[in-house]
Amino acid sequence: MFIERTSVGLDVHARSVAAAAIDGVTGELLRTKLTPSYDHVRSWLGDLPGPVAVTYEAGPTGFGLYRHLVAAGIRCEVVAPSKVQKPAGDRVKTDAKDAVHLARLLRLDEITAVSIPTVGQEAARDLVRAREDCRGDLMRARHRLSKLLLRHGIVYYGGNAWTGKHDMWLRNEALAQLSTRPTRMTFDADYETVLATKARRDRLDAAIEEMAADSEFTPIVRRLGCLRGVSALTGFGLAVEIGDWHRFTGNTIGSFVGLIPAEYSSGSSRTLGPITKTGNGHARRLLVEAAWHHRPRYRIGKTMRDRWDLAPAAARARGDEGNHRLHQRWVRFIDRRKRSTVANVAIARELAGWCWSLAVLDDS
């Protein structure tokens, strides 16, 4: 329930801040334009009739303003942009109007706030996303090199690509088949990019594994590792991207990562579409990739036993139960001749629920 006297909406940009304040006693509406300086914003808020509550939309400017205002004793809410209610007939959008709209929604208590990560969690999230960007860069660099060779009719038939054997083939046979000097220079540039990007990815992997072994996220990572397909990298990525797992239940976690089907229903008609793909896309990709590991027959190998040795007994039992359940789901989908990609998304949605049950499990 909104209890402050003045509600303030801020439309925050990199070089400007549009502000609007509504006095709940007099009904006065005050608008102004501020610089993005935290001290300037706080000074302007200090001149308003108190107490004051502030809201702004989550965006590329991060949570620095939120932390600054909370430290100054001002209640601040960061709104999820996709959940902001907007009039259907409004065809004029300006920063000033957005600020007023946010101030009114705050006074009506009609905002959906996002979960604010801690400084440590945000730093770990930056590291995980840097690794994700590096993975994409490596994939593009490899495609660029392989398609250069394909245009010249050079194709590798010696097995899986991007292995040690494939690397020797690239440096010897493939390079020898390139006849012109400009093409060789292009090959050298693309091959050098692949090597440099792979080295950067390996450095990030080592840093993430080091943090996963000794940080505030270590207990969750070890519990999540009791599930097949959830390595230290995957578990750490899920831990920092989800943050506070207690916000969800086993049913709602799938909605947060966009793994539930879209629905268009009216009256007696109910139509289900593809998955929504809303929420955290990185966590969704990790879950979808991990779900493929549950398709082969479930065996408890050395890798799984090593992970179980680091987790409490309750997590091991829960993980073993989840591994059996998810593999049986795969078997039923295969028997029904379900398309594998569709089945895997369904497994990923259930895997998210099993991850949640392990994440909120008490270590004691």
SSE inventory with pairings:
Layout: E1 6-12, E2 17-23, E3 29-34, H1 38-46, E4 52-57, H2 64-71, E5 75-79, H3 95-107, H4 119-151, H5 164-176, H6 181-213, H7 218-224, H8 232-242, H9 253-256, E6 261-266, E7 269-275, H10 281-291, H11 302-310, H12 313-335, H13 340-359
Parallel strand pairs: 1-4, 4-5
Antiparallel strand pairs: 1-2, 2-3, 6-7
Can you walk me through this structure?
With 364 residues, the chain is an alpha/beta fold. It folds into three domains: 6-107, Nucleotidyltransferase, domain 5; 119-211; 218-359, no CATH class. It contains 13 helices and seven strands. It has helices at residues 38-46, 64-71, 95-107, 119-151, 164-176, 181-213, 218-224, 232-242, 253-256, 281-291, 302-310, 313-335, 340-359; strands at 6-12, 17-23, 29-34, 52-57, 75-79, 261-266, 269-275. The strands form two sheets. It has a five-stranded mixed sheet. α4 (119-151) packs across α8 and α8 runs antiparallel to α10 (281-291). It is globular, with a radius of gyration of 26 Å. The mean pLDDT is 93.
